[in-house]
Structures are given as C-alpha cells and as structure tokens.
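Hi R.,

Here's the chain you asked about this morning:
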Amino acid sequence: MAENRFVSAIIVAAGSSTRMGANKMLLEIGSMTVFERTLQAFEECSSVNEVIVVSSKENIVRYRNIVHTSMLSKVTNMVVGGKSRGESVKNGLAACNKAADIIVIHDGARPLIKPDGIDKCVEEAADCGAAAIATKCNDTLKIVDDEGYAVSTLDRNHVVRIQTPQAFKRDIIMRAYEADDLEATDDCALVERHGVKTKLIYLPYINIKLTEPVDMTIVQAALRERGRL
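And the predicted structure, written out as tokens:
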C-alpha cells in the first residue's frame, strides 16, 4: 500500500435478490453469511482504510448487528440505497471519507473476492485512474436482432465479462456520478463516457456474483477448495 493513500470501499448490498428467492446477503455458507464473507475480505485487505455498506432500508438494522458481532472494524458507515444501483452507489460515495484518494466499489454478492484482488484494483487505479476485475469469455458471442435471430459473431479475443471490485481515483468517479444520468450496468461504463479508460485485471480464481440458487453450489465448492469452509 502506498504511504498516505486513503482508500474507501463501497459494498453495494441493497438489491432485491429476486432471482435468488431470498436475501442472498443473509444466506449462510458454512458458519458465515454471504454478507460477512464479502466484508471479511475487505477487513483483511491492507490497502483498504474504511468500508461503507449500502443497504436496503429493511435490512440495515440486521446488517449493523452482523457488523457489530463479527467485529468488522473497518465499516465506518452504513447508508440506505436508492431505486437503482447507480443511485445506491451515489449514496455510498456521499458517505466516503473526504480524504479518500481511491474509491473501490464492490457487489456484496461476490463473496469469493480475496484481499489480493482488491489490492490489485487499488494499485492499478492509483496508476491508471480506473481499474476493474474481468474474466475472459470462453463462449462464442453473437449479436441478435429484435426477432431473436443471430446476425453477427463477436471476436471473443476482444470481449470480456466485467466483475467487481472496480476502483477509481476519487475525482474521476465523483465527476462521473455528478455529471451522468446513472443509467449504466457498472461504474466503468460511467467513467468511460468521460474519456477514462479502465485497466482490466484477470484473477486466477473464481469471483462469481450470486444471482441464482445454483450459484451457491459453485461458491461452496470454491470455498471448500480454499479451505475456508
């Protein structure tokens, strides 16, 4: 970690979990909830100084209790999210320490992230301005028309799947959120609209987002292989 660099991390945990059928952040994997496992990676990450949790209104008390009982000391604030992911992140940004040089944004439903992945994002963002975890595509990707017919094939050597964490210099992410309409599926898309390129980082381990029930099996298998289950 660079000397005198202050890093704030925003954990977005305000989603509805519709496809999961239950609040995925509170699902238990072994002796810990998904929420705890995600936050633990940031707790153990030496480059992160503080963690801001963005929660739905109905879960904020439950999350505060988990933070307290799990002694997650880096969580300095917990705020209520908005109607969209963009609004939720914006609420998290407003709660970050004013001294923050780098801001990391992470999906709470990605409990497989490790401290080293967070560190890499922070270092690349400090150097390039914006960085994100990504994974290469193994499948062939097609462009389809409105009627569902394939009309062209993408070169998968130039297509990736973007994940989180995503990290940014403070002024870059703040400027994007102040100037944009927030209609984007991830934070990199917002800064790209302002001419900032995102440096991609490929991890040597699985970092999936819990979306459907079958994903729990993958996460459990990965944690078991790591000896964390």
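Helices lie at 34-43, 60-69, 85-95, 115-128, 170-179, 187-192, 214-226.

Let me know if you need anything else.
M.
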